[in-house]
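Lab meeting minutes (informal)
Scribe: AK
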Amino acid sequence: MAQITDENMYLDNSIHYIDHLKPQCEKCFGLCCVALYFSVQDGFPTDKSAGTPCPNLEADFRCMIHEKLGALGLKGCVAYECFGAGQQVSQVTFAGQNWRLKSASADLMFAVFLIMQQLHEMCWYLTEALSFKLASPICEEIRKALYETERITQLPPHSLREFNLSAHRTKIKVLLRNVSKLVRSEISRINKVTFNADKERKATADFFGRDLRKRDLRCADLRGACLIAANLEGVDLSGTDFIGADFRDANVRGANLSKSIFLTQSQINVAKGNSNTKLPLTLFHPKHWDAKDNTNE
């Protein structure tokens, strides 16, 4: 049987993401714990407004309950991913000047962080897109978009706050959609899967609590799909586009996500998997995925 492999999916045998697209909390001033709006209902430790420090944020900008987030059921904290925006804003945009010592710039710093997080997320997706051998026909377009987005991340604070993020995001969204169709069509051809560019998109994207174990979701377009508490146990999800999909409490135990596209660590963090769940090269199994925590739920 034909099968998509690392060798024919990627430009090389591994994907080397730029370090600044991975969070380095020790280089950040706890921006996600201050700039974000918190709601207990959304899985955060308290209700707080944007710009107010979380009570668990210590003087050295570390979280005093970080190692207990999963055990405490704080899924909002567990899921959040800044894609390295925290250290970029802290160490580059504001040159190491933290919001406590420079309170006059605090609101600007928080606003820029929210913008930077979205720009870095775009960089993550574009870098992944650039790694796909199957997307080589449009690699130059992807490369230019990545270069332009990275250039924007280097702008000074006031320029970042005034930047038309919506227009840029729309442009990147169109490009990533084209990448998705190209990659999914090639994977479907290699694996002999019937391909429809809008497979699953024509149907409802709400799979809340649904048992999807008998559905052929290979190469499906599940962008933005609601997969909350859906059962994907043991399902082959090769070539499936998950950009923006909601994985909260989705059962992915034993599922093959290794060749899925546009999947992020934050999505994996809120799903329920185990050691048999296969992930893309750039993602890792969360600590709370061990048998003790979620096999017998």
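Next up, CB showed the second protein from the same session:
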Amino acid sequence: MRKFDHFLAVDWSGARGERHRGIALAIADAGGGPPVLVEPPARGWSRTEVMELLRDDLPANTLVGIDLGISLPFNDCGAFFPGWDASPSHAKKLWALIDDICSADEHLGAHGFLAHPEASRYFRHGKAHEGDRFHLANAITREGRFRETEIAQKRQKCRPVSNFNLVGAAQVGKSTLTGMRMLHQLRGHLAVWPMDPVPARRITSGGSMLVEIYTGLVSREAAALSGARTKLLTYGDLNVALEALGSPPVMRYGAIDDHSSDALLTAAWLRVASGQEQRWEPRFLTAQIAWTEGWTFGAL
């Protein structure tokens, strides 16, 4: 089993603007100890700063988990954007397409893609504003389209939201689009599972890999082990969940925001889950799905 030395969790944000209180980073060490928040700049992280950290300052042999979709549904319709002749054939071409169309958007923004006359047809933009191709394979439920990994999440009693949905507090569409811009710009610097093979372990440089994670799955698994709540409102709640994962507590007290608790818990969870073979070989992950839709690490 491939071993990593560090585990970095990133709670991402697709919101407009340069800096985001909704971005949080936490790191855990393979040698033990509690997860630790990575101190943000004074006004919060920018997406560009997170990308630069992953590209230039990531410790060797780090497994990075980032809370966003690394691709869009493909398997249900045989295409990302059925009926559009520019629809890419695999995820890395999708990243390139989004980054190219959004090249004028600052701060890894994705407004350009959502305003594109063809691309916009596939998204739900508001409660009363749906593109005419938003439903396609899911016209009955009206939830939008799902990747195979999100169907697997449903089997694990999670409640994923379509990456084509841009509405509501649980939507991840904007995070996914901004994140794919980052993934394209990181090509050649950081391997992405399951599109890329797991890199060899290196002591002095490299050897790191990025995986998609879903913090809702992480909190559900921790709650199942601890018997506690899935929503962590205090450091006390967080430490109950950490104990269930075999992690020492974070020695702080009082209230904690969702983004920090998600990052801290996920860093500790990655430390455990990365050593479980079934996480790397989910039963419904095929080579075709890996290349087009990707997968959420931990979804079985």
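CB comment: The radius of gyration is 18 Å.
No objections, moving on.
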